[in-house]
Amino acid sequence: MRVMGVDPGLTRCGLSVVESGRGRRVVALDVDVVRTPAQTPVPERLLAISDSVEHWLDTHLPDVVAIERVFSQHNVSTVMGTAQAGGVVALAAAKRGIDVHFHTPSEVKAAVTGNGSADKAQVTAMVTRILALQAKPTPADAADALALAICHCWRAPMIARMAAAQEKAAQQRRTFAAKIEAAR
């Protein structure tokens, strides 16, 4: 499975692509950070992110896109920019029929380090180790994008089992409702 991990942001948007192998084996294929100047109007910044993401989607052809879920922060403008950047990425993937999954920062940290409240240095160190990289990915947005992709690779089997169980439960509810209706 090829996963594009995205750490959204207006100033720095981390992009990565990894491929999962057997078991927990994951290989990094590419990583980069899209940067937009703070003084540039937001629509132009979103366009720059969109153009880069579309290029990545067309070049790397991921099976799924994993995006960090926006969570409450103290700075509302930061949350807005992060949400807008994540929305641009989700839209580009949806236009291509690529599944999009959102993961919270604590899910990603727990998957990669075993600790849902790990700091950026711990995440970077574990990403470097898991992917057997020669050097730590920098800036932190690049490491975070890789961590998101790794997290999704490792969580995907459980996500698929949960979706199958939900579908089976829904089918059983429909069958039961049909039996009740037929008995009336």
TrEMBL record:
It comes from Mycobacterium servetii. Homodimer which binds Holliday junction (HJ) DNA. The HJ becomes 2-fold symmetrical on binding to RuvC with unstacked arms; it has a different conformation from HJ DNA in complex with RuvA. In the full resolvosome a probable DNA-RuvA(4)-RuvB(12)-RuvC(2) complex forms which resolves the HJ. The gene is ruvC. Its cofactor is Mg(2+). Binds 2 Mg(2+) ion per subunit. Its main location: cytoplasm. The active site is at D7, E68, D141. It is an enzyme of class 3 (hydrolase). It catalyses: Endonucleolytic cleavage at a junction such as a reciprocal single-stranded crossover between two homologous DNA duplexes (Holliday junction). It is found in: Cytoplasm. PROSITE patterns: RUVC (PS01321). Mg(2+) 1 binds at D7, D141. PANTHER family: CROSSOVER JUNCTION ENDODEOXYRIBONUCLEASE RUVC. Keywords: Cytoplasm, DNA damage, DNA recombination, DNA repair, DNA-binding, Endonuclease, Hydrolase, Magnesium, Metal-binding, Nuclease. The RuvA-RuvB-RuvC complex processes Holliday junction (HJ) DNA during genetic recombination and DNA repair. Endonuclease that resolves HJ intermediates. Cleaves cruciform DNA by making single-stranded nicks across the HJ at symmetrical positions within the homologous arms, yielding a 5'-phosphate and a 3'-hydroxyl group; requires a central core of homology in the junction. The consensus cleavage sequence is 5'-(A/T)TT(C/G)-3'. Cleavage occurs on the 3'-side of the TT dinucleotide at the point of strand exchange. Its EC number is 3.1.21.10. Belongs to the RuvC family. InterPro entries: RNaseH-like_sf (IPR012337), RNaseH_sf (IPR036397), X-over_junc_endoDNase_Mg_BS (IPR020563), X-over_junc_endoDNase_RuvC (IPR002176). CDD domains: RuvC. This is Crossover junction endodeoxyribonuclease RuvC. Mg(2+) 2 binds at E68.
